[in-house]
Amino acid sequence: MPKLFKFLLLALLATLSLGALAQEAAIRKNIATRLPQLKAIDEVRKTDMPGLFEVRVNGTEIYYTDAQGNYLIEGNLIDTRNRRNLTDERVEKLTAIKFESLPLKDAFAIVRGNGERKIAVFEDPNCGYCKRFERDLQKVDNVTIYLFLYPILGADSTEKSKAIWCAKDRALAWQDWMLRDQSASAASAKCDTGALERNVDMGHKYKITGTPTLLFTNGARVPGAVDSKKVEQMLAEAAKG
Fold it and tell me: Within this chain, do residues 82 and 38 fall inside the same structural domain, yes or no?
């Protein structure tokens, strides 16, 4: 009897697996045929809602469909019982950035005090919120700030970022501009500025849509010009692991 039960269980699992593969194949085929303008599908997976499937394209774009791909839904899937936005949670997971994987060669470091605590920040030099954030960030000590120049507000943002990146002392040039409105000389912007393009590409990949955006060592992401108290709170939480 145990051997028979095991055989039947394996047969059932195999049938379910084949059924799931057939469903996925049908969804991929029908959507690709009917909506050729949609980018190639990265993944098809079941959701917590019976009969509803997640369709992921372009890395982090989420849609929903039925088992045959006859309908496509764009929007948020809400778990009303637990009051959770499942779509936001999924996108947050897909766009999570491991701090240790950050390309720190494309940033410059600002060290205060013993520099033990670490934070990465994406900022645009033309961002007014970033300037306000930088002024308040001066109150945070014993921290190393990895500053990723992220020029997304226009051509002038790119030119200012190039001048700062090519400055002899990048950290000083950044703080001169953000805190004292003293711009770096554009004439000095003659160096390899490929890091700026890579930063923008990385930001698009991980859905960094605004500045400033803060990343902590525990993977937490905080968008917006939060105050120093919030930064201290997040640093303390990150230290706990």
Answer: yes
